[in-house]
Specification:
By secondary structure, the chain is an alpha/beta fold. It contains 16 helices and eight strands. The chain is 45% helix and 16% strand. Helix 1 links the parallel strand 3 and strand 4.
Length: 299
């Protein structure tokens, strides 16, 4: 897994971020979702390296092998703004002042925050399986609360830690196929979730989402701040974004001026389930002048 990639620990303001990186050419930052680590990109990142990109895959603050500060009552230590600051520091440490950026699931909220807070750093943006947190909450009804119940369970104080840490491998291992994930990717995930401090940080991610992150997004909308980088929105056709909201591009056009996107034949963990199509979609967006070459990425 990640043959030819270097690994290092990058110290940021209040965190220590584990990162994998390789390649040369235009820099690309890939941000994973919950409860995954950077290992979720193990089938996509090498394809992008082969396509001529310099690829950076960090573990988000508190996830995997990254470490952050203790939780605080306002959840600011695990806000998307704080985590976006980590990611910017990682890229600057590696010599990348401006870069392309993709985020999946919880990583997409970090990517959105990075693009809004630091527009000068983000050349092109791709967001996968998401709409903004505030848009989810604005549309919350009984169906959303039932299907996305974990958002509200994870936000409870202390209770989810007690439940999950009683048997974290069972909690995070249900409905997970190690062969589909890749054995090393699966082993890294199971090692991470067995550590109570990782579980706590991941829950703080969700607690921040319903509080400080929502407030930041609503402040952006009130101030008229929008994503200025060209945005590609991708979604898994066997996930539920379209079922919940119809065409997600309609929502995203309220947040960005230059938007395109389409669905990919996959379940939720698209980087593991359909890496070839995802890599083509990312490469074609990040280097549009070479889109025909991107379409020929090896299966």
């Amino acid at each position: 897994m990640f043959e030819g990639f270097a690994t290092e620990q990058v110290e940021t303001d209040g965190a220590s971020i584990f990162v994998r990186h390789a390649g040369s050419g235009p820099p690309v930052l890939l941000l994973h979702g919950h409860p995954r680590t950077s290992a979720t990109w193990h089938r996509v990142a090498p394809r992008l390296v082969d396509a001529g990109f310099s690829v950076v895959c960090p573990d988000l603050r508190g996830y995997g092998r990254s470490r952050g500060p203790a939780a605080d009552p306002e959840h600011t230590a695990h806000s998307k703004r704080a985590v976006a600051g980590d990611m910017l520091a990682v890229m600057r440490h590696l010599g990348h002042e401006r870069f392309c950026l993709a985020g999946h699931d919880r990583g997409s909220y970090v990517a959105l925050r990075l693009a809004l807070d630091h527009p000068q750093a983000v050349e092109r943006l791709a967001l996968i399986d998401c709409v903004p947190i505030s848009e989810h909450l604005r549309r919350t009804d009984a169906r959303f609360a039932t299907e996305w119940w974990h958002w509200f369970f994870f936000a409870q104080p202390e209770i989810p830690e007690r439940v999950i840490n009683a048997d974290p491998v069972a909690w995070y291992g249900r409905n997970v196929d190690p062969a589909a994930m890749g054995a090393d990717n699966h082993a890294e995930l199971m090692d991470a979730v067995a550590r109570p401090e990782v579980v706590r940080a991941m829950l703080e991610d969700y607690r921040a989402g319903l509080t400080v992150d929502r407030a930041h997004e609503e402040a952006d909308r009130a101030a008229g701040r929008r994503v200025i980088a060209p945005l590609r929105v991708l979604w898994s056709l066997r996930d539920d974004i379209e079922d919940l909201y119809g065409d997600p591009l309609v929502i995203w056009r309220e947040w960005a001026d230059d938007v395109d996107g389409f669905g990919i034949d996959s379940g939720h963990h698209v980087a593991e389930e359909n890496p070839a199509d995802l890599a083509r979609a990312l490469a074609g967006h990040f280097r549009p002048e070479d889109a025909p070459a991107a379409s020929a990425l090896n299966e």
